[in-house]
Hints:
By secondary structure, chain A is an alpha/beta fold. Chain A is 48% helix and 14% strand. Chain A is globular and about 55 Å long. The two termini of chain A are 34 Å apart.
Amino acid sequence: MTIGPDRPFVLIGERINPSGRKRLGAEMAAGDFSRVQRDAAAQVAAGAHVLDVNAGVPIADEAALLVAALRAVSEVTQAPLCLDSSVIEALAAGLAAYPGKALVNSVTGEDDRLEAVLPLVKKHGAAVIGMANDETGISSNPEYRLGVARKILQRAQDHGIAPEDVLIDPLALTVAADPEAVQVTLHTMRLIRDALGLNMVCGASNISFGLPDRSPLNAAFLSMAMVCGLTCAITDPTNPAIRQAVLASDVLLGHDPYAGAWIAHFRAQKAAASTP
Amino acid sequence: MTEEEIYAGLYDNTVLGRAGEVKALTQAGLDLNMDPVRLLYGALLPALQEVGRRFEIGDFFVPEMLMSARAMQAALTLLRPLLAARGEKTLAKYVMGTVKGDVHDIGKNLCNIMLEGGGFEVIDLGVNVAPEKFVEAVRTHRPGILGMSAFLTTTMPMIKVTIEALKKAGLRDQVKVMAGGAPVTAHYAEISGADAYCPDASATARRAKELIGVSSDAPSGALVDAVAAVEKMMSGVEE
């Protein structure tokens, strides 16, 4: 799995996450991972390159659940996994149990978080997502967010983690609460791309929180963000509008030479439509 | 312009979030010697409650609610000094914050809008609020209610941690505690030791009134009369 500025965009499937999916959470807590496996397979079939796995079920042993969820997902797909937790014990247990190269989601620019998460990332040869916020919260100043990203990169390198294993989340907030929010995110992306050249990832669906008919907004955002240097996103690949926006932008930006993926997607759609 | 036209105009324009019109109509009402309390309770607050109702059923969206709140704030810049001069009191103080480790604030801010619209004085501690900061705020402000918001499954345990900190400080029985946020459920709020669960902003304002003994169904004009009763009930609360 390679993520890079001149390569096709990488989709990280967001659906294995009990936040806002109470039935999924209840099943996971009860040891039933059948829905997790179905979601994993469906996302990969829809074009996900990586799957995010979050096991943050309230009042449950998150470390044990994360390990069990990772095993369940690995049974149905070879896709690399993104371990999503802010609980250090859960990340440690998940990394120890997962045989492949994991992506750790995430660390912030806060000193105590950096010192807790980065040694784990180094120990297990993983990659890590660094969120561009710190002790002071989320800055609305793109230059400040760049500074946090630079600090995360520096600390990662201090721990012996290579720059290519550091992805920065420039932070995507909803435009519903602040008309400038997405402009700030896009500006931050351009700064990070030009100054640090790191890969970037973000929770693309955040930008439309609080608005109706979110898919077209998320799709338009992804196209804009890809121009500004976003190289992957945590989003829902089973959503056709999002998948199309990503494939189309890859063609237009020259990341899908001779439109190979676009044409293959078209043929697959056509074949699916003609099978009764 | 008649008084009826001003009431109707204030209501409609607050629902539509037109701050300029709302401010102008408020000034026009004051120029006609209309009662600032009546402007507030007869038009502005009912409009905000209507916005909250529409939001709750999915007819209104976040930007519309924020614009309505802004329109109401434009009116309040004119009304607040007049209300203060006449000694109009709020229902109670409400200390609000997003728990430690969590920086989500939209839901919390919507709750603040509905609480202020409901007659509370909101003291917003912001996001990433440590338990000791909540404790300190309860000690300093002596609020009737403390509200906590958590948006992540990983930060919602801070609700319980904060409540434990209140107990340790000997302040738990002096304040009602409400909890809410995307992953929080009524059951989770209960086992964390909160007095009430808030599924959304409108419900937060309703439950808050119930917690301090004001009927949530009372016509808004009655809120003013309820103030005296509430203050008597909360006689331990220093102003």
